[in-house]
Amino acid sequence: MIREFCNIKPEIDPTSYIHKTAEVIGKVKIGKEVSIWPGAVLRGDVEQIIIGDKTNIQDGVLIHTDYGFPTTIGKNVVVGHGVIIHGCKIGNDCLIGMGAIILNGTVVEDNCIIGAGSVVTENTRVNSGKLALGVPAKIVRDLREEEILQIRKGVEHYIEKIKEYRTGHPE
Most buried in the list 15, 92, 133, 137, measured by CB within 10 Å? Predict the structure, then answer.
């Protein structure tokens, strides 16, 4: 459901897909070919949330902000099931693994993977091209080329899912 909050309506590109059970509230700007899946909540009632082109927000994701901490997610990002993203910046071409938590003030640069179940604590910086894992998340190594390609495949998979959901069947 798309909801206005304090006279501010979400801005959603018409090429994007919002599942009917997702909640998009207030100061939210959604780019082209973005998909937001069942049970996801994007709550722009404090600061702005920006979602870049071709990003997918999977089932049960919670995206929120805090005073002085807007949330920006770049282009071509895969946000796995059950992730919590709060008041941070995520660059382009990243994968945020299922159940990960990313807290206020964090910056995840381009081409990164945050592993499933990891907790990225406040004001952490994950430099470009890195894999971060654990609780709290630590950088463990550089990404391999095949991992970067897998992110791209995940992005394309969800763009195809938009088409399937709009037509009721795969092309």
Answer: 137
168 pLDDT band (50/70/90 cuts)?
Answer: confident
Q: What CATH number did the domain enclosing 144 receive?
A: 2.160.10.10
Long-range contacts of 27-30 (CB under 8 A, 24+ apart): none
Q: For residue 31, give both structure tokens.
A: 């780019």
9-37 pLDDT per residue, tens: 999 999 999 999 999 999 999 999 999 99
- Residues of the domain holding 41: 2-167
Helix, strand and coil in the chain, % to nearest 5: 15, 40, 45
CA distance 171 to 168: 10
Contacts of the segment 102-108: beta carbons below 8 A, 24+ positions apart? 104/66, 104/69, 105/69, 108/132
Q: What is the tally of structural domains in the chain?
A: 1
